[in-house]
Amino acid sequence: MALDVRPLHPLFAGEVGAIDLRRVDDRPTLDAIRAAMDRHGVLVFRDQPFSDADQLAFARRFDGKLHSKTGAAILGKSRLGDEALTDISNVDETGGILRADDRRRAYGLGNRLWHTDASFQDPPGRYSMLHARIVPPVAADTEFADMRAAYDDLRPETKAQIEGLRAHHSIAYSRQTLGFEWSAAEQERLKGAVHPLVRINPRTGRRSLYLASHASRIIDWPVPEGRLLLRDLIEHATQSRFVYRHSWRVGDLVIWDNLATMHRGRPFDDTKHRRELRRVTTLDVA
Ligand code: OGA
Ligand code: MN
Q1: Nearest CA to ligand 1 atom 4
Q2: Which atom of ligand 1 is nearest to the CA of 265?
Q3: 117 C-beta closer than 6 A to ligand 1
Q4: Whole-prediction pTM
């Protein structure tokens, strides 16, 4: 079967017609969602009345193993009680809005940098599933960039130059670029991971750039040249023609392929407006 998908952008991203993902547990439908992910990179499912348990269960049915080694765990236990459920919100354990000087807030603001989820781990994140529970009355959008289209658009010399290169990704690094400070003990636990700069989708054979603000250097290159290459590639890959902007509605579940896209949260007054989403990310294992 094929899913009913309405394109949201000329290059990628689609909205799927009415479907209740809590009820989807047959292999043909799950395979159809994977095929649609391979094609579109980002899929929007509206009106999903997920509980935390429903969201975790769907992610396991769809893609197996879940990512649970989040950088945020270093700052303290999640109020949600399960490290596989990432708290993408600006509230504390009492339900109050995080204060401007709260370390968890500063950490969360790092999501406003272009990134892929869990690229600082090995295995890295594959699919992320973000569910909107409370959305502010002001725009608090998420942008996605198509890393396959960005790869295709590179000059042949650049493609040849970057083939086979590997980058080191670290959450400590991306937060440090925003002035976030880590203790020596925290840094010790955030060593990061090395991944290829170009990835090939095993089902479609399509290449994509694997980039993130977590990428701190190119292995085997001097640091300045590696950082400049990474900056140039991110600048190229996030031009507006490669970007889809999602405006959230309560009940939206957005699934993205971290190996085919980058994303970032857009600014809003988070010390004033409550915004609560939950993310589950699967692991890129065979
Ligand atoms: C995420 C993320 C951005 C946002 O959930 O992984 O980066 O807009 N979110 O909340
Ligand atoms: Mn993210």
Answers
A1: 265
A2: 8
A3: yes
A4: 0.97
